[in-house]
Amino acid sequence: MAWCPAATMPESTSVNDAVANMPPYLAAFRGSFTSALRWPQLDALWDRVRAAPEGWYVYAIGEPPPTTPADAEALLRFVSEIDALLRREHDEDYCGIVYADAPAAPSMIKIYDPNNLGVTCGYSTNPPLPGWVLSRLAPVDVEAARQAGGRRRWWQRLFPG
After folding, report:
1. Is residue 37 part of a domain?
2. Are the C-beta atoms of 132 and 63 separated by less than 8 Å?
3. Is there a contact between 137 and 122 (Cβ–Cβ < 8 Å)?
């Protein structure tokens, strides 16, 4: 698979401290990911997910995060449906919009919406959010966590509790 450092940030003490103090899901979410650049690479990734369908959380960003993993049937249905959607709506000869933390043994997969891509590959302090995430870790509300610390403190000062 091709390397694409999506959602990564340069090493620094402040970044390392911030990662150490964040929930495990967010630390994994902000880690390094590898793109399934070609459609056959995506097929291989889906095969790995299908081979062990238990224990996956299916999270649609913008919806409340799930509190329990999807059952195997729901996960397999999601993989089938999202694969069809990606191939239908991302009319390219390459994929490049699905990223896994470890393609050979994934525990988190980010799937970008073909109709809301922005810049998914490359360094950014504020990259676009994926449309969906498959994860072995229980998700947290990524949109709420994304709000800048200063803005969050400002908001909490205005609306405590």
Report:
1. yes
2. no
3. no
